[in-house]
Design a protein that fits this description.
Elements: H1 3-22, H2 28-43, E1 45-54, E2 59-66, H3 70-74, E3 78-79, H4 83-91, E4 95-97, H5 109-114, E5 121-128, E6 131-141, H6 148-186, E7 191-196, E8 201-204, H7 206-211, H8 224-227, H9 232-244, E9 251-257, E10 260-272, E11 278-287
Antiparallel strand pairs: 1-2, 1-6, 2-3, 4-5, 5-6, 7-8, 7-11, 9-10, 10-11
Helix pairs in contact: 1-2, 1-6, 2-6
Length: 293
């Protein structure tokens, strides 16, 4: 790859990374279409196609195509048992073909249907970790044969795009779960306060603010003793739960605020991440001052 082509490849990769940084919607068809456009320009190809993989049908479905025969290409699903792209899908490996018509994997029927003449091919599998999600294909580089440097450029762009899409999907899932959990916490009649492993306040629901007579927003991500300075016993209970990793049920403590004594009934819990590692501690409580024993 000469310096001019190298510059074009790097520019395309930087452009794609900038595109990733601006993504807000994990719409795979739209994202891969943009990436294929940018790579096709960088590689200077006559045509390019993005295929999504349909595992139940064992087919590659053209979702986006560039080139003179693009409309016809988009109407032609590809069986994974045929063609260069089918081979790439089956083996999860890229293909770099200098003379397509001399390659035994080449499926000439598509050219026959479209009237397009395929000379050279660069095809890359799209993987989400080990799961095949599609294939991108670039056809007929105008300035010569596809090179190993071209292959590296496409591989890097596709890996980065797959990772960006995965991150967006995970973020979207976390947002939905967080919104669901936040709704539950917001509507609890009892107070709930939680801290991370460093003792920083991470949750203080509306009921907790009401019971503890907290006005306005409570500072989050600061040491709990700073956020709940007027409830030292509650802070002690949370820190004891963190240090001992022991939980209690149906306990009580007296709390005085502005000269008025209140009884709070509480239980504690440990918060764990999906791997089972300790990520914090929480306390649920109610004002039981007027409850008759």
């Amino acid at each position: 790859m000469n310096s001019q082509r190298l510059d074009a490849g790097l520019a395309a990769l930087f452009d794609i990374m900038d595109f990733h940084a601006q993504l807000k919607d994990p719409d795979e068809d739209k994202v891969w279409a943009r990436v294929v456009e940018k790579l096709s320009v960088a590689l200077d190809t006559e045509a390019a196609t993005y295929f999504s993989y349909l595992p139940l049908r064992r087919q590659l479905l053209p979702r986006y195509a560039l080139g003179a025969a693009a409309p016809e290409v988009k109407a032609c699903a590809v069986d994974v048992d045929t063609g260069i792209c089918g081979w790439v899908a089956r083996h999860r490996e890229p293909a770099l073909v200098a003379d397509a018509r001399q390659d035994e994997r080449f499926f000439g029927d598509v050219d026959g249907l479209t009237g397009f003449q395929t000379r050279s091919v660069l095809a890359m599998p799209l993987l989400d970790r080990l799961e095949l999600t599609g294939v991108v294909e670039f056809i007929n580089k105008r300035s010569g044969d596809f090179t190993n440097e071209d292959l590296r450029l496409v591989a890097a762009a596709c890996r980065a795009t797959a990772m960006a899409l995965r991150a967006l999907r995970l973020e979207s899932t976390v947002d939905r779960i967080s919104a669901h959990n936040a709704s539950i916490l917001e509507n609890l009649t009892g107070g709930f306060v939680a801290v991370d492993t460093r003792g920083r306040l991470i949750i203080c629901n509306p009921a907790a603010r009401r019971i503890l007579a907290l006005s306005g927003e409570v500072p989050i991500s600061v040491p709990v003793e700073q956020s709940l300075v007027h409830v030292p016993r509650l802070v002690e209970i949370l820190m004891e739960t963190l240090s001992t990793r022991r939980v209690v049920k149906r306990q009580e403590f007296e709390w005085k605020f502005q000269g008025v004594a209140r009884n709070l009934g509480y239980s504690t819990l440990l918060i764990q991440d999906p791997q089972g590692n300790l990520s914090g501690a929480g306390i649920t409580f109610q004002d039981i001052t007027n409850v008759q024993h």
